[in-house]
Design a protein that fits this description.
By secondary structure, this protein is an all-alpha fold. Helices cover about 70% and strands about 0% of the residues.
């Protein structure tokens, strides 16, 4: 088992170094893979950066407790993907942006860009990188003959360091090229490994019909995506609005998600990459949610959420199979870690160093800054990972809770940026800060009285919806009544019009037959609606 995982580490590191050996020491090459990624690499890399700690460790555990409800986060994304595909992405791609904060300066002000860049770095390091390393350390630790992990120890810290060092090595050396092509390998491994667990689990649990019957017997709601208003994961109010909050923020404005699109070799490849990623989301719940339902039948209630998937692996599979599955889990985590490292270093180099520290920095200097910032960021994440050993809830809820603080104000100012010319920089910058404060305040209200806290504020999707509405109100009011700064000007073509949805004329020849983007998008939307009708 350990040999298989070690071989996987060696293979990943080798691919990460080999694919980037011909890259030049240029900004486009290092941060955007030379802008030459094909659509399938964009698609698989986006999927790899999305599937991580909160899925195989967190989401499976949440499904074990609550049933099918977490699948909402995968099947309910078709509206935000539509917004990215037809409204946001054409501008991002055609203007050859390096970072998403860069867009906010073009639309609003340098202050808006700076605040958003800072918030993005904080979120990526503390809400994505740290829990990914924490979970990766747990997985490797469970392979050792040590005592159960109940508190910090140096063996666990060593496990975190192994993942940190190997992932940072190819990220620092190769930039986005290394990240994307190792993602292709990692997504393949984790999908195959995830299916193996499902197949063995179904056999152990007595078959698909037995899993369905026993979950329904325990609670008919375990197979429903939409729940009562106070449900912790999938309240109907949150399901109806989360596409405007967490989902739109993650899909449409997240640097470590969209950076692959910016590195595509054409707009068609960027958009087809998004469609491919959205299509893969149809199948992800089969390997990141359904195992939780199987585990409920196998073990009954009472397990700690974050321990469910590892227990399934250890009890279902022989050593060789466990090695493959653990490699798959590590693949998911390394993909998330590498994505965060590359994107965070891009923001630091382009939005912080070049804008605020050395405006005349050349390409070689920016690449060097990117490499050093990658090292600095991985050190912070590594030191912070053991802190989550003291977190009492499941890691899926931790990650989503953190997202609920950041997502609503960001989603509001981006929608306004493209759809409302009246929104201006002063209002947008204040709305960003206001939204974070309100989100934290609602969380405090929700838990202020322990289990007797305000029940309808307990679900993070409800809090996110309330914050989104308040942020929209504040943005509109400030934009209307607060005078616009004299330097707050933007190009008219930022405001969306239907022409932006069309491919540039030189690429329209690709958009025919089975390569037609709209055809595949209609398939995606139809399938998503069908799933919500079937399990709503």
């Amino acid at each position: 088992m350990i040999i298989i995982v070690a071989l996987y580490f060696i293979l990943t590191l080798s691919i990460g170094i080999l694919v980037s050996r011909r890259e030049k020491n240029l900004v486009d090459d290092y941060f955007l893979a030379g802008r030459k990624l094909p659509w399938y690499a964009v698609s698989l890399s986006m999927t790899g950066s999305n599937i991580g700690t909160e899925h195989f460790i967190g989401m499976v555990g949440t499904a074990y407790v609550f049933g099918l409800a977490p699948a909402t986060f995968e099947w309910g994304n078709f509206i935000p993907y539509s917004i990215l595909l037809w409204i946001f992405l054409p501008y991002f791609f055609r203007k050859k942006l390096y970072t998403i904060p860069e867009f906010l300066e073009r639309r609003y002000t340098p202050s808006t860009r700076a605040v958003f860049a800072g918030l993005s770095l904080l979120h990526m390091v503390f809400a994505v990188l740290t829990p990914a390393l924490y979970a990766g350390g747990r997985i490797l630790y469970d392979m050792t003959p040590s005592q159960p992990l109940v508190s910090f120890n140096w063996i666990y810290m060593g496990c975190v360091l192994i993942i940190s060092i190997i992932t940072a090595a190819y990220c620092i050396y190769g930039g986005l090229s290394s990240v994307v092509w190792t993602d292709v390998l990692q997504v393949t491994v984790l999908v195959v490994g995830g299916l193996v667990v499902v197949i063995f689990g179904l056999d152990k649990a007595g078959g698909l019909s037995q899993v369905i019957q026993q979950n329904l017997a325990a609670d008919p709601g375990r197979f429903s995506l939409i729940q009562e208003i106070s449900h912790p994961v999938s309240p109907w109010t949150g399901v109806a609005t989360f596409w405007l909050t967490l989902s739109l923020w993650y899909v449409g404005t997240n640097q470590f998600y969209i950076q692959r699109c910016l590195g595509a070799k054409s707009e068609w490849d960027a958009k087809m990459g998004v469609i491919g990623c959205a299509g893969l989301k149809f199948f992800l719940p089969a390997i990141i949610v359904f195992p939780g339902l199987i585990a409920f039948v196998m073990f009954g209630p009472g397990l700690a959420e974050d321990a469910v998937y590892i227990k399934m692996i250890n009890e279902l599979l022989p050593p060789f199979g466990r090695g493959i599955l653990l490699a798959a889990l590590i693949a998911a985590i390394m993909s998330t870690v590498s994505s965060v490292l590359n994107s965070a270093s891009t923001i630091w180099a382009i939005d912080v160093h070049k804008r605020l520290i050395h405006q005349k920095a050349g390409e070689t200097e920016l690449v060097r800054v990117g490499r050093w910032s990658t090292l600095f960021i991985i050190v912070i994440g590594t030191l912070m990972a053991p802190v989550l050993l003291f977190w009492k809830g499941g890691i899926f809820i931790y990650i989503q809770d953190m997202a609920a603080f950041f997502a609503p104000p960001i989603a509001v100012i981006f929608l306004a940026a493209f759809l409302w010319p009246g929104a201006h920089g002063k209002a947008a910058t204040f709305t960003l800060i206001f939204g974070i404060v309100v989100g934290i305040g609602l969380k405090i209200l929700a838990v202020s009285a322990g289990e007797n806290g305000i029940s309808r504020l307990q679900p993070l999707l409800n809090r996110a919806a309330i914050t989104w509405v308040l942020c929209l109100f504040v943005l509109v009011c400030l934009s209307l009544f607060l005078p616009r700064h004299s330097r707050d000007r933007f190009d008219a073509d930022i405001i969306w019009n239907p022409e932006w949805a069309r491919l540039p004329k030189p690429e329209q020849g690709k958009n025919r037959g089975l390569r037609n983007l709209m055809f595949w998008w209609i398939v995606i939307i139809s399938g998503s609606i069908a799933l919500f009708i079937a399990f709503g």
